[in-house]
Specification:
Blueprint (H helix, E strand, L loop, with lengths): L1 H27 L1 E3 L8 H20 L9 H12 L3 H29 L7 H23 L4 H13 L7 H9 L6 H31 L13 H9 L8 E3 H26 L29 H9 L9 H15 L3 H4 L12 H21 L5 H30 L5
Antiparallel strand pairs: 1-2
Helix pairs in contact: 2-4, 2-10, 3-4, 4-5, 4-10, 5-8, 11-12, 11-14, 11-15, 12-15, 14-15
The structure holds protoporphyrin IX containing FE.
Amino acid sequence: MVKETDNLIDWLDERLAVKKLVKVLMTEYWVPKNVNFLWAMGALLVTLFSVLFISGIVLLMYYKPDVNLAFDSVNYTIMHEVAYGWLFRNVHAVSASVIFLIMYIHMFVGIYYGSYKSGREMIWISGMLLFFIFSAEAFSGYMLPWGQMSYWAAQVITNLFGGIPIIGDSLVVWIRGNFFVADATLTRFFMLHVVLLPVVIMGIIVLHFYSLRVPHVNNQDGEEVDFDKEAEKYMAGKVKEAKVVPFWPVFLSKDFAVISTFLVFFFYLVFFHYSFALDPINFDPADNMKTPPHIYPEWYFLWSYEVMRGFFFDIGPISAFDVGLIAFGFANVAFLLIPFLDKDKSIRPAHKRPLFKIWYILLIVDLVILTTYGKLPPTGTNAYIGFVAASVFILLFVMLPTITRRDAKTKGEE
Ligand code: HEM
């Protein structure tokens, strides 16, 4: 009898806790009303990360991190022998590719609306950290099938660390765990891919969300909203007049609508166009005696790869390899620096900042050119187009402080 009463109290407690949580969500978390569907990209990223996590766990049950077994465990066991193994592999590969597309959209929405300034710098920095760790996660995952591209991409990328002065050569050996890319390299990248990096990603997602709590999300007009005052209006029944809506269930219903629509498109890709996420050359087992004629990374790294290849000549005493490496380093920190390079303190969307709007369009066009040429062999005209596009990329970031200062001066004239 005592036990049953205890159970009843626990049951009631749980129900009350859920009720309390719903009440907190409905009364304490508010979101600006004037945000469009582009503000659902963060929720889409959480969805895609969850899909990657679940499909990854299923793949982990059959994958073998050993240079003699890895290729077959993916291409025969998972793809042909395990029931629906092919489905989980396609889901994992497609979501890995699409998460970068959504991450780029999310970043460019932030740049367009100036969501990285005036107290939102930490959101931006934690976001960029997520981008870096996701890049390492994608690169380490690409090695696991131990196909030709896995092997040679690992060779090229680990070699880049050799360009660091003094410690470069030892660093390459330390990263590879051997003098060349070998079994030790595969097992340590396996550890990074399935344990360390996912844990770090989850930690940084928490930091990203926590840094969103204080300044709140931005809105389409960059308007400073008094959340307490607007929330009071909403609670007093002036729903139309209030500039905010409760996070739950009003704001989340829009997120759910975008996620559901996106999932239709996502599964269309998984079932009918999965091949875009799997490089054909990686269906040949790794062979350290046979270099593929042309080595390139996945599409989402092509722009920074092309910035590196764009500088194919020595500059004075600095060799072409080192010049390329410096340019590559710059490409990787450029986006992180945006909040500090943008000297216009006011938060306005790009269409209300005349020069910044041109800068924004030029940057996107340049990134598309870099991505396109990053996949082509760097010979003849391609090499020169690559050089111009890489120089424009660097110039755009160097000019950003001047452009934004000018826009700040002409503020209010449009
Ligand atoms: C897996 C990675 C990521 C996840 C799960 C994530 C999640 C979110 C979520 C849920 C939001 C709030 C809703 C929204 O505005 O979409 C948000 C906002 C934001 N995120 Fe991310 N994000 C990720 C990566 C990034 C990256 C790579 C950047 C770029 C540096 C970034 C920068 C921002 C900014 C600036 C905001 C504030 C937007 C605003 O105030 O309007 N995030 N993120």
